[in-house]
Automatic annotation (TrEMBL):
Listed name of the protein: aminodeoxychorismate synthase
Annotated ranges, domain Anthranilate synthase component I N-terminal: 13-140
Coiled-coil region: none
NCBIfam families: pabB (TIGR00553)
This protein's record includes keyword Nucleotide-binding: no
GO molecular function, one term: 4-amino-4-deoxychorismate synthase activity
Length: 449
């Protein structure tokens, strides 16, 4: 088995020190653990100049697209890292699946008019990555054997040369505002409640979009946001067509390490308090809430079913239920679902059987997605999709793309939502859809013009 070449670089706790050098290159991507401000993540991964870029055709089934992704991985060729090396990526695919990639996997109605025109998926095939391990305090350039030696030499020189980032600015020229007002939201909420009362569904994630105008370099906005909202599944993708994705997600979708599978759904949210006593009270209220525990349990059961399609019979379990995770703007209730891949199955099979994540659709999933199409007036685009990597060894990690912004030209968009169940309160859900993104909106407004 061929091995990757590993070149040690000076350790950087902040990935901007290296990503600044490539951020405007074709296919530039950063998967960011939020260090040094966040405490949970371990690795940052960045790359650019993909050898190929895959996007699904308009009518292409998702499993056909994933088979093309398998073929792309095979074309890169196998590679290993030295025994015991924990780095998560040895060359392979990095990119995103938009929420609407679900239309390539399930029967759904025609979508609402799409004013954003984000491709439903983009996966780049990368033969190198710069990975920082914040536990080992190391930064390493990982070169797949398929990468030409001259390109490896160029990259090594690029990342070891002095950096002189060009000054850049970013600011809002019009504040982000919701695409639905309180009255329109109540109408959608009541439609969802009627479906729940009729037995069509048990839970639906109801979302609204916030849109504004901006000027400048989105990378400036991303760096500011990662300071005020440090989370372990952040990411920055520089895409064709003048589109940039800025994700500050706290939520893992699915990870595969060896044959072990893990999902960590979030369901249940409270704001942070202004004083330690108020903050503690919000956290305790969340953990004790029968409604939030019921919502969380519904999604755990949905994920057990989704993962069970491609995991070994009897291996799916729930080692963690109703745990508390706290971030700068919110407390979340989080659970963990684990399993072991069945013989003959891989990470792409898992994605095909589980995408999009149940925590941001509802239960049962397909019916919830059909209702979402009916009651939400604008496309979700990247929101509730996933940022991911999948390497030639079968290692994968992926996020749920919440707390995520899309910049296209001089327009900027983000989304906030929450689960509606039988005993939901309309005003509480409307407020929750705002305070989930409030920290992002306020941070963007702080940037000077």
């Amino acid at each position: 088995m061929p091995f990757c070449t590993l070149l040690a670089l000076p350790y950087q706790a902040d990935p901007a020190r290296y990503f600044d050098r490539i951020r405007q290159a074709p296919g530039a991507v950063l998967l960011d653990s939020g260090r040094p401000h966040a405490g949970r993540g371990r690795f940052d991964l960045l790359s650019a100049w993909p050898l190929a870029t895959l996007q699904p055709g308009p009518q292409e089934h998702g499993e056909v697209f994933f088979e093309r992704a398998r073929q792309a991985l095979a074309s890169l060729g196998p590679a290993e890292l030295p025994s015991g090396n924990p780095l998560p990526f040895a060359g392979g695919l990095i990119g995103y699946l938009a929420y609407d990639f679900g239309r390539h996997l399930a029967p759904l109605p025609q979508p609402n008019p799409d004013d954003l025109q984000l491709p439903s998926a983009t996966l780049g095939l990368y033969a190198w990555a710069l990975i920082s391990d914040h536990h080992a305090r190391s930064s390493t350039l990982v070169l797949h054997p398929a990468l030409p030696a001259a390109e490896g030499k160029r990259l090594a020189e690029l990342f070891q040369s002095p950096a002189a980032p060009a000054p850049a600015r970013f600011h809002l020229t019009a504040a982000l505002a919701s695409d639905v007002d309180a009255t329109q939201y109540r109408q959608a909420f009541e439609q969802v409640q009627a479906y729940i009362a009729a037995g069509d569904c048990y839970q639906v994630n109801l979302t609204r979009r916030f849109s504004g105008q901006c000027q400048g370099d989105p990378w400036v906005a991303y760096q500011h946001l990662r300071q005020v909202c440090p989370v372990p599944f952040s990411g920055y993708l520089h895409l064709a067509g003048g589109i940039t994705l800025l994700s500050h997600s706290p939520e893992r979708f699915i990870a595969v390490h060896g044959r072990r599978v893990e999902a960590r759904p979030i369901k249940g949210t409270r704001p942070r308090g202004h004083t330690p006593a108020e903050d503690h009270a919000y956290a305790e209220q969340l953990l004790a809430s029968p409604k939030d525990r019921a919502e969380n349990l519904m999604i755990v059961d949905l994920l057990r079913n989704d993962l069970g399609r491609n995991c070994r019979v009897g291996s799916v379990r729930v080692p963690e239920l109703f745990a508390l995770e706290s971030y700068p703007n919110v407390h979340h209730m989080v659970s963990s679902v684990e399993g072991e891949l069945a013989t003959g199955k891989d990470a792409l099979d898992l994605l095909a059987g589980s995408f999009p994540g149940g925590s941001i659709t509802g239960a049962p999933k397909i019916r919830a997605m059909q209702i979402i199409d009916e009651v939400e007036p604008s496309p979700r685009a990247i929101y509730c999709g996933s940022l991911l990597y999948l390497d030639v060894r079968g290692e994968m990690d992926s996020s749920i793309a919440i707390r995520t912004l899309l910049v296209k030209g001089e327009r900027i968009h983000c989304w906030g939502g929450g689960a509606v169940v039988a005993d939901s309160n309309c005003q509480a859900e409307f407020d929750e859809s705002f305070y989930k993104v409030q920290v992002l909106l306020e941070a963007l407004a702080e940037l000077p013009g």
